[in-house]
Amino acid sequence: MTSAAPPDHPDVRHGRVGVLLINLGTPDAPDPGAVRRYLGEFLTDPRVIEIPRWLWRPILHGVVLRVRPKKSAHAYGQVWTEEGSPLAAITRRQALALQQQLGDAVLVEHAMRYGNPGIAGALDRLFAAGCDRILTAPLYPQYCAATTASANDAVFAALAALRWQPAIRTLPPYYDDPLHIDALVESLQIQLRQLDFEPQKLLLSFHGMPKRTLELGDPYHCHCRKTARLVGERLDIPTDIAFQSRFGRAKWLEPATDTMLAAYPGQGVTRLAIAAPGFSADCVETLEELDIRGRDTFLSAGGTRFARLDCLNDSPEGMHMLEMLVRRELAGWVPQA
Ligand SMILES: C=CC1=C(C)c2cc3[nH]c(cc4nc(cc5[nH]c(cc1n2)c(C)c5CCC(=O)O)C(CCC(=O)O)=C4C)c(C)c3C=C
Ligand SMILES: [Fe+2]
Ligand SMILES: [Fe+2]
């Protein structure tokens, strides 16, 4: 008797290419319970909080997860939409639009690093649909270990559970890519034109991170500075950079966005536009922190006009950029258009 030939899995379709868009994540609902579950996952990621577990755990469970969910749920409540959290809704729309732009040659899914839809589930769906080559695209223009590396960690952790893995490519950061700078410049110009607004200054506000992370060698700060410089050089408006969303007691990157907003009117800047080119989609940090609280800070200090400009989201400029960035990474996997 000869032994049977190994099966060649005729029931498994393969040879397809998948793209997985990944963003940070967001609670399922704007209530303290859902926010606590989301923050619990987010703030136990050692890529995000880089202090020893034994020191952080009691602070997280004893203080942060008791106090912050209520405060954050209020912020989420102010920006929640019929389609859910803005970040979730916009990321879903980006995936749908990209699927349309790329056509049948590629299957597009989206996932969140924390919360739903999760990365492991999205990879499972792509693989089950026959994708044995997958491009993962963390939608952070600037590399930060807390965001980009953490998304990649979650992808590879999910693959660690598989006997038969797909091939993986990851989208590199695109902070200084001409496609990104062109899209930002065009989007900001279109919005200012639509608002019929000539601000005295444009403030480019990026999400902050602990200053120590920069000292340890994370390139995020430099990437943000370069995005801001390249955008500023292309516009006729004086441009400043600042960092927002400070969390905890440690020293974070400076200057702080709220400090700048409070100081501008005293320096004669009363007509201000603000944009957040570190976020690929509007979220609680742009819609609540900047558009509600930031606006209030600026106007209370004597500002007269304040415009918070949208992120690239699923705008035509943003989707063109995303399609081109993705197509470049798919070279050799799908015929190039
Ligand atoms: C775009 C880059 C981001 C970096 C870098 C980043 C670092 C970072 N963030 C926290 C803590 C929080 N961030 C929160 C929200 C949040 N952060 C980003 C992006 C970056 N974070 C986004 C897109 C969002 C919005 C999510 C949404 O649902 O809309 C929050 C939750 C909100 C709140 O309670 O204020 C926290 C907390 C740390 C500690 C950190 C460190 C490097
Ligand atoms: Fe954050
Ligand atoms: Fe730097």
UniProtKB/TrEMBL annotation:
SUPFAM superfamilies (UniProt xref): Chelatase
Enzyme class: lyase
Pathway listed: Porphyrin-containing compound metabolism; protoheme biosynthesis; protoheme from protoporphyrin-IX: step 1/1
Record CDD domains: Ferrochelatase_C, Ferrochelatase_N
GO biological process, one term: heme biosynthetic process
InterPro entries documented for this protein: Ferrochelatase (IPR001015), Ferrochelatase_AS (IPR019772), Ferrochelatase_C (IPR033644), Ferrochelatase_N (IPR033659)
Binding site for Fe(2+): 207, 285
An annotated GO cellular component: cytoplasm
Principal subcellular localization: cytoplasm
Keyword terms: Cytoplasm, Heme biosynthesis, Iron, Lyase, Metal-binding, Porphyrin biosynthesis
GO MF term list: ferrochelatase activity; metal ion binding
Catalytic activity, reaction form: Fe-coproporphyrin III + 2 H(+) = coproporphyrin III + Fe(2+); heme b + 2 H(+) = protoporphyrin IX + Fe(2+)
Compartment(s) where it occurs, according to its Swiss-Prot or TrEMBL record: Cytoplasm
Role description: Catalyzes the ferrous insertion into protoporphyrin IX.
NCBIfam families: hemH
UniProt family annotation: Belongs to the ferrochelatase family.
Protein's recorded name: Ferrochelatase
Gene source species: Sphingomonas sabuli
